[in-house]
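Hi,

I'm pasting everything inline rather than attaching a file, because the server keeps stripping attachments. The sequence lines come first, and each chain or strand is labelled.
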Amino acid sequence: MTAAPAAKATALPALRRDWLPVLLVPIVALVALPLIGNVAGWLTLTVAGLAMGMMIFIMASGLTLVFGLMDVLNFGHGVFISIGAFAVTLVVLPLATMVQADSVLANIAVLLLCAVVAMALTGALGWAFERVIVRPVYGQHLKQILVTMGGMIVAEQLIHVLWGADPISVPPPEAFRGSVLIGEAAIERYRILAVAVGLAVFAAMLLVLNRTKIGLLIRAGVENGEMVEALGYRIRRLFVGVFVAGSALAGLGGVMWAFYRQTLTPGMGMEVMVLIFIVIIVGGLGSVGGCFLGSLLVALVANYTGFLAPKVALGSNILLMVLILMWRPQGLYPVAKR
Amino acid sequence: MAEPLLTLAGVNTRIGRYHILHGVDFTVAKGGITMLLGRNGAGKTTTLRTIMGLWRAAEGRIMFEGTDLAMLATPEIARLGIAYVPENMGIFADLTVRENLVLATRERAPDARRLQWIFGLFPALEKFYALAAGALSGGQKQMLSIARAIIEPRKLILVDEPTKGLAPSIIRNMVAAFKELKQTETTILLVEQNFMFAESLGDGVAVMDDGKIRHSGTMQALAADRDLQQRLLGLHLDAHQ
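And the predicted assembly:
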């Protein structure tokens, strides 16, 4: 094997990192500070916004990958959130003494158990959902919307049958109740936990997507699934894996959401779906990094406007989405599609 | 005559309600480069995509070493040792050059000696190894696309118009790379519109029109017969010299 004539020397292309969307989060937070007027209030609202954003990210990240990889619009994603939330009852009711125990270790063990049970349950449900409901409608968007919404209605009714129609109260474990004082700002312990869990999930996703071959395949598949197949990989199998993982993440998000709201209702997953769709559109369909930033932005803006102008709060997310799409029509971090 | 590696017999392909290939019959001999020529819309790209299983053959057989590819899905076809370089290059723009090459290998990482050989063919890829493929120029993307196809030894490579839109200097580099590839065991089926490029590389040739093969033979014979070129391709060779 000998070398062919060298290509004409070319200049090194500049690697432009796009930091502007990342800067949006601190910019929004800093702009809010003088408007709120006191640091303690601002800190409380900011941590609350970050916690809510992290929970939305956990719930939304799987959906953005599912859409990016196979162009599947899964309007039934909310059911995995609800099931994940209700799975909490399978752990906290029999282990009520551990939930109320003064031991941090026992409390953390309960939370971990909730996460494992919820993720196993929603992962298995996701596998069945993909096989029975999503697979027959690949490539047919209208049917996907109708069928996945239908699947969600059926699943919601199943929750009614299994857990009853009455709201169920699920207070968080003892160690995560109440607040800690930072200066004059009262920060809820559970919100700090939500931020930590969200960051851990984001870091784990980045690690998998950037440092493993499966992650490379997912990123490549989001961009050009046909070429991934032409390289010898079965993208359908990859998609099933991502669907199951996305459902399990939604289940984990459901656990976090359940303890955050402290009340379970069968429709709680569907209620948060509007926010989730806004987040994945704002972030750029298929982009995990965009989804993360979108979640933080949506939650921070909702919290700040809820405090500053409650009447505007309901529409603030839509307004944010419109502004971002006017700036970047494909979202904060558009995925290069073939 | 070298033994056939790939034989298409009566291949018909429909895309939606459009009937594109109308019984394509031709053979790709083992070793060397077979050119697939024809005017725009003749069905060349559809033929490659049908071989690769990206569009299904509605009728006919595509025999590759005793296996009918028409019965297989694209990943299984690729695993038989067939690589595809699409017209749009199909590189993953958000992935680095290295990551693009890693994905094309069955192993955890590309073989170091083979990688050095590829860097010899396409030096720009070594320079930009850690950069996002989306930052490369058109010619460099084409090099990456071909490098991905040859990062491991393949039996057959399907290449769709590799010179499209490239500067003459890059095309010369491409010709040199393909000549180097001809020295290996790999067989190449190459779709091309640039007759000079085809003439400089091709061993065998098939000419398509209206979804059918109108002529097949040696490249040498076609290059020597201007009337045939005129009749099949509408070429005035003088215009190319």
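Chain B touches chain A through 50 residues (CB under 8 Å).

If the labels don't parse on your end, tell me and I'll reformat.
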